[in-house]
Design brief:
Elements: E1 5-7, H1 12-22, E2 26-29, H2 35-40, E3 48-51, E4 61-64, E5 67-71, H3 76-80, H4 83-88, H5 90-96, H6 102-105, H7 110-116, H8 124-129, E6 133-138, E7 141-146, H9 147-150, E8 151-153, E9 156-157, E10 164-170, E11 177-184, E12 195-203, E13 210-218, E14 225-226, H10 228-234, H11 241-253, H12 265-289
Parallel strand pairs: 1-3, 2-3
Antiparallel strand pairs: 4-5, 5-10, 6-7, 6-10, 8-9, 11-12, 12-13, 13-14
Helix pairs in contact: 10-11, 11-12
């Protein structure tokens, strides 16, 4: 492995300056659960790793006015151990509690999961269905990017030279809202999704119709997919088994899976239909009991 320097800036400005000056030869990190593996595998060579955990903005977790702000370096365990966050965002907890074992969850962050831009990332689809926004900081200042547009290809994202993810912002959920995430893996020892689905629905006052919905698909395309047609189909429909089954078929038509050692294209498409039905049912149950 190529020798590299370890740098621990204490401010955002310092972190941005280091990343901008070193360009492609430096990368920011939070838990390093992905980047160290990639370095050992020779995926790329770096001169510096920039640790963000000493930057206060990247380690803050706050639930204010119903909205949630997650610093890019906040570990998954801190998210699911917060009782208020668990109650308000159970669909996000579904994912945070799935990313590796407890040792990984004590270091890995949803911010790192997003920046790593794996098509099978468990953390990205729940953020998409919660309409999350990535807050970025770089040499030219601050800008926002929707989470569904953040990943541009396998391992690629919208970050520019010298730019880093500061935090992820989730708006307050609407009334009678529920979300859920599920995945399929071949076995516990192969902790990478063959397919995954996140679903979110909001119901009308009587609970008789869906007033808003978002579906997102993992591991069935070069990036996590916002299933726009399936989401639009659910609008105004009754939350029934038949409605959810049809939404699953539409969601599968929006996927473009590959075949690999973990599953065939056909298997992945079938899984999208099944997981869509299941996550919509869980999201519905949560919407009916939400406050």
């Amino acid at each position: 492995m190529h020798p590299f320097s370890y740098v621990a800036p204490r401010t955002l400005d310092e972190a941005v300056e280091i990343l901008d000056r070193r360009g492609e030869r430096a990368r920011p990190f939070a838990g390093a659960t992905d980047i160290l593996v990639q370095l050992r595998a020779g995926r790329f060579e770096l001169d510096a790793l920039v640790d963000l955990k000493a930057v206060p903005e990247t380690t803050a977790l706050s639930l204010d006015g119903g909205g949630l702000r997650i610093g890019a370096a906040v570990p998954c365990c801190e998210i699911y151990e917060d009782a208020a966050v668990r109650a308000a965002f159970p669909g996000l907890i579904d994912a945070a509690s799935l990313i590796g074992g407890i040792q990984i969850q004590s270091r890995a962050s949803l911010g790192g999961n997003l920046c790593n831009a794996s098509p099978s990332a468990d953390g990205v689809c729940p953020l998409i269905v919660h309409s999350a926004v990535a807050k970025l900081r770089g040499p030219e200042g601050e800008r926002d990017a929707s989470v569904e547009s953040f990943c541009t290809g396998p391992g690629a994202n919208v970050l520019r030279r010298g730019e880093l993810l500061v935090e992820i912002e989730l708006p307050p959920p609407p009334e009678r809202f529920g979300a859920a995430y599920q995945r399929f893996i071949p076995r516990n020892e192969m902790d990478i999704a063959v397919a995954g689905v996140a679903s979110a629905v909001a119901l009308d006052e009587d609970g008789a119709a869906i007033v808003s919905a978002r579906l997102a698909l993992a591991a069935v395309g070069p990036t996590p997919i916002l299933a726009e047609r399936a989401s639009a189909f659910l609008m105004g429909k009754p939350p029934t088994t038949e409605t959810f089954a049809e939404a699953g078929k539409i969601a599968a038509s929006e996927a473009s899976p590959i075949a690999d050692m973990r599953g065939t294209k056909e298997h992945r498409l079938q899984l999208i239909e099944t997981l869509t039905r299941r996550t919509l049912a869980v999201a519905l149950a949560r919407a009916r009991t939400s406050r």
